[in-house]
Design brief:
four-stranded antiparallel sheet, 11 strands, seven-stranded mixed sheet, mainly beta
Length: 124
């Protein structure tokens, strides 16, 4: 499994931006499909966006046009750029890795490695 550490969360006003980073350990980062999930109390964790080893991406409809996922394989890091943030984006955001290929772009159950989570709070 790969070890994941997120950073970059915080408090921002509605309309603002944040960039989350997720640093991974291990030598096979480039082979993983990487995803960002979020969870609010009382709700299931949802897959927000993902990027495959080949660069294909998936976005939850509610974040399309506002969020951008990217990866830097040389740094073993995946990023989530969040723009035009809304109060409903408030959640704990988790980075996750899947070794099951591009199928994991849209299937949350295929992720096996998780970071500790970082809080994102958007005030109105």
């Amino acid at each position: 499994q790969v070890q994941l550490v997120e950073s970059g969360g915080g408090l921002v006003q509605a309309g603002g931006s944040l960039r989350l980073s997720c640093a991974a350990s291990g030598r096979t980062f480039s082979a993983y499909t990487m995803g960002w999930f979020r969870q609010v109390p009382g709700k299931e964790r949802e897959l927000v966006t993902a990027i495959s080893s080949g660069g294909s991406t998936y976005y939850l409809d509610s974040v399309k046009g506002r969020f951008t996922i990217s990866r830097d394989n040389a740094k073993s890091t995946v990023y989530l750029q969040m723009n035009s943030l809304k109060p409903e984006d408030t959640a704990v955001y988790y980075c996750a890795a899947s070794g099951l290929g591009s199928r994991a772009l849209t299937i949350a159950a295929m992720y096996r490695s998780w970071g500790q989570g970082t809080q994102v709070t958007v005030s109105s």
